[in-house]
């Protein structure tokens, strides 16, 4: 971790643009971890669900509805919906802590930032859950496979979240006060 701190300091010494670019690079790596979780964990979770649960039709508030695999006629049901969204939640929890500590070097109060992050994340997850009910049938028609469509849908939703989360996280996780003080002192010299 000392190497990462050295790179952070070197980037900060080159100015705020370079520092932000370096944060974006770190954010990409953290997002790749979240991407892998969000894309492949649903396929793993499905292994522990019964076929009946995976194909159980659902309609939640008229917004989230099960869809039908165009090729096989099988209902992509509640189990698929839950697997995709549980994976998304886990990916976001991992992202929160790594980005706070490593990407943005923040000491922001978790009691304040976590609830804000949770509300924002819930809104994005609801949006992604709705969007996946649009994507999965579309990609199933294109690929002929519900599993492939589910993975592509997770990847697409993850990409959208990626571009929304970086500016949000940058605002939510201010830099540690002692690091700001050190940078100000270095700039004065």
Describe this entry's structure for a reader.
With 189 residues, the protein is mainly alpha-helical. The protein has one domain (2-57, 71-182). Helices cover 77% and strands 4% of the residues. The chain contains seven helices and four strands; from the N terminus they run αααββββαααα. α2 packs antiparallel against α6, α4 runs parallel beside α6 and α5 packs antiparallel against α6. The mean pLDDT is 84.
In summary, what is this structure?
By secondary structure, this protein is mainly alpha-helical.
Topology:
Blueprint: H1 2-13, H2 16-46, H3 51-54, E1 59-60, E2 64-65, E3 67-68, E4 75-76, H4 78-103, H5 110-143, H6 146-172, H7 177-188
Antiparallel strand pairs: 1-2, 3-4
Order of helices and strands: HHHEEEEHHHH
* Number of helical regions: 7
Beta-strand content bin: under 5%
Terminal Cα separation, in Å?
27 Å
Q: C-alpha Rg, in Å?
A: 20 Å
Mean pLDDT across every amino acid position: 84
Query: Total number of β-strand segments?
Result: 4
Approximate shape:
elongated
User: Low-confidence spans: pLDDT under 50, at least 5 residues?
Assistant: none
